[in-house]
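Table 4 source record.
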Amino acid sequence: MTRQPFRGWHVVGAAFVAEMVSMGATFSAFGVFVRPLAEHFETTRGVITSGIGGMLLVTGVLGPVLGRVIDRGPVKAMMLLGVCLLTAGLLLASRATTLLQAGAAFCGLAAIGTAMFGPLPSMAIVSNWFVRRRGLALGVTVAGATAACRPSGPVAQPRAWSQPRARPQRCAPVAAFPRVRSGRHPGVVHRGGPIGCRRSRFLRRR
């Protein structure tokens, strides 16, 4: 019987991209838009920064619900839907004419999309692929979120919030769509084998 090649590190790469895009398009880039948003909507920066708190609240509330979904079956559909929701939320926020519309798009659609496609499913998938080197694999996965801090600011900074040329940058989450959808990474398509099983075609002692 031919032993299948271990593809766990391919899954880590896909999870790294998911973390980088989800965090870079929301939390990392948000600070660049605080001042333009405050001027555009004629409000204070404190009101604008409360959007981050709203997003954290929504993702925190959804955590247990999404964790139960991850335990029950494939994660691929959930992550793909998350990419679409995040992209739609950012696009709608860029076209908002009132602060309420922008807040609903960012703290609603974008926050839900981030929760469905960001750190939680990425780390759950990677955990199911590794036993002995699980800490290293998770560390590389989490590094995707910090790696997003460097490029997100310079990319977003020269673009005014209300200008049409800013909208393509709001489509950044689409960059992760092919990586999540790819059938070459079974760990992204399926949840993976149960931790602790003797032999699994998804779980190897790596």
